[in-house]
Amino acid sequence: MRALWYFEEVNLFKILCPHKYSEYKAGHEFNSYKKSDYIYFEDDAATKLYLIDEGKVKIGYYTEEGEEVIKAILTKGELFGEKAILGIEKRNEFAQSIDNQTLICPVAKDTMHDLMRDNASVSFKIYKFIGLRMKKLERRLQLLLFKDTKTRLLEFFKDLCEDYGYECPDNGDHVIKHPYSQKDIATLIGTSRQTLNSIMNELKQENVIEFNRKELRLRKNIA
């Protein structure tokens, strides 16, 4: 599965964004958010879906003790708030901008239903997209519960490889050019940046990975 609006060769943004349609264009606007701005809170009414045009958004919730739990960090081209079209009336998570400039395309759930009803093929792809995302989230939560930090990191790298990687024809290594910072990765695998840096340096010494600020390389033996 690719992480962007492109899904099975279909550009969902071109199809779904309301400003592409004359009947919705006049009343449609993009919303701009700064770092730490919330797009929605837990228990807010689930009336819209959202497409990220620029920036990054984290999805999470708070435990009864007030601890923040991050479920996902989404980037340019991704869809969130999709449970609104499944009949869920209230949010059970928050969505918050984590970039200084995040541009969001909001889509009312009624508008989305209209667009999906007019295109059965796209409707199927959206539901499949939602199913795959839920499957990936379930897998990540299982890793958090039952695996050590090093294993969680390696599995996260393999997921990145599926979404953002390509194979080098000369040696079979996989190069990954992804949008996540080290802070993002540490948050997603449930560890500190210090621990993440330590494990990454250990994996580098073991010749499992190579990395710099611009890219990550997975050696053939784990990709």
From TrEMBL:
One Pfam short name: HTH_Crp_2
Annotated TM spans: none
UniProt xrefs under SUPFAM superfamilies: cAMP-binding domain-like, Winged helix' DNA-binding domain
Keywords, alphabetical: DNA-binding, Transcription, Transcription regulation
Superkingdom of origin: Bacteria
A GO CC annotation given for this chain: cytosol
GO-annotated molecular function: DNA binding; DNA-binding transcription factor activity
Domain Cyclic nucleotide-binding: 12-91
Alphabetized CDD domains for the sequence: CAP_ED
Protein's name according to its UniProt entry: Crp/Fnr family transcriptional regulator
Chain ranges of the HTH crp-type domain: 147-222
PROSITE patterns in alphabetical order: CNMP_BINDING_3, HTH_CRP_2
KW Transcription (keyword) present: yes
Species annotation: Tenacibaculum aiptasiae
